[in-house]
Amino acid sequence: MTEILNEVRRVLPFLLLGFDTDNNTAFLNETVRDYCAAAGVLFKRCRPYRENDQAHIEQKNGAVVRKRYHVPATPYQRLLEDPWVPEEIKAHLRRMASGLDPVRLLRDIRAAQQRFVKMADRTGVSKQAAPTQPTLEEFLHGLA
Fold this sequence. Notes:
Strand order of the largest sheet: 1-2
Strand content: 5-15%
Low-confidence stretches: none
Helix content: 40-55%
């Protein structure tokens, strides 16, 4: 988990200030707590048996926990609209977005998934076969 947090912190265009988790033992352990303390990242978790404490996690699980809704926007759009984000960060994000290629991004995601499978195989956690890469035609057919 700390390796993944290091990678996330490396590629974010801004500082990671906090890490909110549910009570899953994959997140809630001394290693992650100590990592966050050493990195200056605020580590928070929900209260036991309070499933609505983590709105984003519960929303992903299908539970309706928020009553106010914002205009739909991607995280990229929200960062560009946020007055607290410095203009130099916004310019950097615009440059990054102009060079994005969805097919290349999918390839990179699949490569990261392969690395995770190899890491799990090394620790003996999982013996599942690595996901196969779709052809370009299969990928394009799967798009809405």
